Amino acid sequence: MPSPWRDLPAAEAAAAVERDARTLAGTLDALEDLEGRMREIRAAIDAGRTDFYEPATDRAIRGQLLTYLSCREVLVRLAWFYREPDREGAGLAERGFLVGYGAGTELVARGMQLVDAFEEAPRARKKLNEGDPAGEIPPGTFERIRGNLADTDLLDAMAAAAARFEGMAAGGRLPAGTPWDRIALRARQGGEVAARLSERLWRYKWDHAVARAVGTGDAGRYAASAVVSAWIGDARLRKRSGREGMISPEQVEALRSRLRPGDILVERRNWYLSNAFLPGFWKHSALYVGGVEGLLAAGVADDPAVVPLLPALAEPDHDGHRREVLEAVSEGVIFTSMEESMGGADAVAVLRPRLPPEEIRRALVRALSQHGKPYDFDFDFFSTDRLVCTEVIFQAYQESIRIPLAEVLGRRTLPPGDLLRMWDEGRRKGEGPFEFVAFYDGDERSETAFEAGPDALAESLRRPSMTPLQEDARGVPLLLHPAAAALLAMLGVGLWVFRRRGDPPGV
Question: Does the global pTM surpass 0.85?
Answer without folding.
Answer: no
